[in-house]
Amino acid sequence: MNRFLITLLSIIGFSSSLVFPYYVLFLRNIGDSYDVFSLLYGLFSLSLSVVVYFGGRYIERFSPYLLMMCHSLFCSLLFFSLPLIENIKIVYIGQLLFGSFTALFKLAEKRLFMNASSDFYRSYLFWTSFVTALCIIGVGILLESIDIHFMFHLAAWLFFLSGVGLAFKLFKNRKVVV
Predict the structure, then answer these.
(1) SS3 state at 143
(2) The CATH number of the domain where 40 resides is what?
(3) Residue 178 domain-assigned?
(4) What's the average model confidence in pLDDT over 144-163?
């Protein structure tokens, strides 16, 4: 565990915090009604819980860096394509995949921290929370001067960069089974 990993995970937290409120608005707007919006949000939670429960049995077979990298690259693809999505069926599938990849990230994160020192974990929690707070405050301040498409693309690029960084970490630690 090192600062590079904390930086990558902080970038992921920053990217998630940057777009979360606007992603919820996107779901609300494309859902066009509260029942569709709740279904979309529920699909995310349902797929997350199913993958955590059933996929958690097989998680030891894969490197946590690989799982986190897959999450980051999926989020990058999702947020790059978000402004182009107009069909609700694609959003349903996207929500199922988003929940599944988020579950993989959570399981990988847990696995990484099982062997981490308390100092590393404390440092990780501090920096990811600190960066998230700065992001939320910063977006609130900049809200009037930035475009929502710009935010989605910025988050997509940040997820992509963190995915590349995690790939670097994965290949650097070849002793970990892929």
Answers:
(1) coil
(2) 1.20.1250.20
(3) no
(4) 83
